[in-house]
Amino acid sequence: MAETHLLMNELSSSPYMSEVHVHTVAVTQTIELPAESETIVPAHFLETPTNLVTGVLSPVYEFIERLEVVLPNILVDTQSQDIVVRVMNPHSKPRKSYAGMKIATLEPLEPEKVQEIVNLDNTEEENKPQICSV
């Protein structure tokens, strides 16, 4: 998977839209999550996002709690209805996610606060931005 980072224009304010409709994402097909592994789970928006370009996909607590799995926050492009979610099963027994299960929500980012999205896999070392974490 590509290592992608979001560069923001305004570090002091939230990149999320202030008044926004959060979109729900569901599992597309029933899939077994093998033990002690990471699986790519196909998913889709339950309702079509309108006028969105980029957003952050966050796991639904009930999905994580029910299956006892781990999901990262993911930066996604909403121009495609089909998305994939990385799910890690740290347990010694397989888990199963069923078609239609709500897996995540999407909160759109304000376009004017997004400077650029950088795919670090395709960037030469000397041209990579300096990225810091808190």
What does the model show?
The protein has 134 residues and is mainly beta. It has a single domain, classed as Deoxyuridine 5'-Triphosphate Nucleotidohydrolase, Chain A, CATH 2.70.40. Helices cover 5% and strands 42% of the residues. It has one helix and ten strands; from the N terminus they run βββββαβββββ. The strands form three sheets. Strands 6-5-9-2-4-7 form a six-stranded antiparallel β-sheet. The protein has a two-stranded antiparallel ribbon with strand order 1-10. Strands 3-8 form a two-stranded antiparallel sheet. The longest helix is centred in the middle third of the chain and has 7 residues. The protein is globular and about 45 Å long. The N terminus is likely disordered.
Relevant terms:
mainly beta, 1 helix, two-stranded antiparallel ribbon, 134 residues, 42% strand, 6-stranded antiparallel beta sheet
The tally of structural domains comes to 1
Number of strands: 10
CATH class: Mainly Beta
CATH topology: Deoxyuridine 5'-Triphosphate Nucleotidohydrolase, Chain A
Number of helices: 1
| Biggest pleated sheet | 6 strands, antiparallel
What is the share of helical residues? under 10%
Task: Draw up the topology in text.
Blueprint: E1 4-8, E2 23-27, E3 31-33, E4 37-45, E5 54-59, H1 61-67, E6 74-77, E7 82-89, E8 95-97, E9 102-108, E10 114-119
Antiparallel strand pairs: 1-10, 2-4, 2-9, 3-8, 4-7, 5-6, 5-9
